[in-house]
Structure formats: C-alpha cells, structure tokens
Amino acid sequence: xxxxxxxxxxxxxxxxxxxxxxxxxxxxxxxxxxxxxxxxxxxxxxxxxxxxxxxxxxxxxxxxxxxxxxxxxxxxxxxxxxxxxxxxxxxxxxxxxxxxxxxxxxxxxxxxxxxxxxxxxxxxxxxxxxxxxxxxxxxxxxxxxxxxxxxxxxxxxxxxxxxxxxxxxxxxxxxxxxxxxxxxxxxxxxxxxxxxxxxxxxxxxxxxxxxxxxxxxxxxxxxxxxxxxxxxxxxxxxxxxxxxxxxxxxxxxxxxxxxxxxxxxxxxxxxxxxxxxxxxxxxxxxxxxxxxxxxxxxxxxxxxxxxxxxxxxxxxxxxxxxxxxxxxxxxxxxxxxx
Length: 338
Known about the structure:
This protein is an alpha/beta fold. It has two domains: 11-221, Rossmann fold (3-Layer(aba) Sandwich), CATH 3.40.50.150; 265-338, no CATH class. The protein is 45% helix and 14% strand. It contains 15 helices and nine strands. The chain has a seven-stranded mixed sheet with strand order 4-3-2-5-6-9-7. A two-stranded antiparallel sheet has the order 1-8. Strand 5, helix 6 (133-141) and strand 6 form a beta-alpha-beta unit. The longest helix is centred in the C-terminal third of the chain and has 23 residues, at 284-306. The protein starts with 10 loop residues before the first helix and ends in an 8-residue tail after the last helix.
C-alpha cells in the first residue's frame, strides 16, 4: 500500500478498503485530492489552537487536511457507519486530536460541540452533504444566543446554493431567505469554485466554498420574527408578496398594506397611478391602453432581468422609455407621480 504526504494511505485506497462508495441517499460526493482538501483547510483560517467541527467527513480527506494544518482538535460528525473505520485510522495517526460523533448533524446540539471543544475557539469547516446543507447553515445562522458558538463557517455548497447565501438585494434572482439571514448576521462571500470533476462521483454542477464570519453586532432585529417573515415571504416565490404575507400579518395584527407601502410596494404605486388618472377626453382610451401596456412592459422587464435574459430585457427597456416619453407628452400630469 502506498503512502500519501501525511503518512497515511491515499484516500482512494482508504475508500476501497472500507467499502466507502458514495451514496446518493446520504448526499455524498467525496474529495480524494489531498491538495484540494489542504486548500480548503487553509481557507478556514489559521487553525492553531482551534477546534474544528466537520460534518460528513466520509473517508477523511478534509479531516486529514485540517489536522495537518494544525487544528488543535477535529470534531467529526458522521452518520455513515462505513466511514468509522477510516476515521479511527486517522485518530490513531493523530492521537487525542480527533473525536467522532456518530449520528445526524441536524440533531447535535451546539452545547455538545462547545463542551467537546474544551474551551478552544470553535470553527466549522465542511464539505457538507448536499441533502442537509441548507438546513444546517440556516440553523447555524439562526443560532441563539448571538454572537454564536462558532467564530467562522467555511462550507462547500452547490454553486447555486452558495449564490443564494451571499446574494444582495440587487441580485434578485438569487436573493431569498438565506441571503436575508446571512446578510443580517454574517459577512458572507464566495472564496473559490470547485469543478465537478474534483468529486467522486462528479455532481452535475459546480460547487463553491463560502465563508461566513459572524457580525458581532448585527442590526437590532427580533430573530424569531425575521425568521417567520422570511419563511412567509420566500416560501412560495411565485405568489404575490401581499398574498404570501397575509397570514403572517394577521397573526401579529399588523397593517400589511401600510407596511408594504412604506417598504415601496410597487402594487401600491400602480394603484395610486390608476386612482390619480381619471380617463376623460378624446385621448382617454388611448392613454389608458398606453398606461396598461407600459405597466406590462415594466413587469416583463423586471422578470427578464431577473432571469438574466439581457437581450429581451434591453428591448423592453427601450420600449418602456419610448412609451414613457409618449405618456408624458400626451398626459403631462403623470410626471407628478414621480
């Protein structure tokens, strides 16, 4: 048996020896390139004196890299019994520096991890199983009390999920519940991408490593209310926001139309436009049709921009501009709405 740079067998040989074939049901895609796992470990920051939590270590590629880079201790959470033998070999190679928790990461309490860290700063670094990745990161971001039990998250996601976590309000196609929570409580960024070929088996999409550093003093906000609000607002993205938030507002006796108007709800603006304009005179029919076409183009423009269909978006923008100028010339009072 050959030996890798860290003194242990190559990961492919380890996986074969322990019958570790990635299971789709467990969301497994293994990383066998020790150079890549070392790069991920270094991205987690200086590890000397730090206890690192790893979820889904599998054959232990990232585990070995974290220990090689100087982590004081790695706390590995693994539910696949087949991986326990491989992890035991790593533990024997670095005595006293690896502790394995056999079980579901979603059920491991933060207090348990803090105790096992033994007073060391706690950090989370993982190539997360894709089927529980979103639930895990949402739970870590919503942790109470805040600042949380960890000082940094360095996590691998499918790129589309990573984009949804780091998105800003300007990136409407990706902006959702995760982005709101992550933007409120953390500084989030994508560190680098990993091609599908780096994994075994290769997934169909590119993956991204992201970093989330907790803000020590996020803007004042009730965490429970914000969590419920984002679930309601983004739970059914095809529904109008007014409809999505009806139950949320009713349960809290909130004036939803007033809140939406204060937040700049465009539907309230449209109602104001139509209420302001009372069709009279010979051009009333033409102007009414023009306003309706203008509003339809506006909706298409926003949707196409969100879908990043730039060509169609540009055509709609040009049509919108020309029709808007025509409305101003034929109906000057409309300027007052702006």
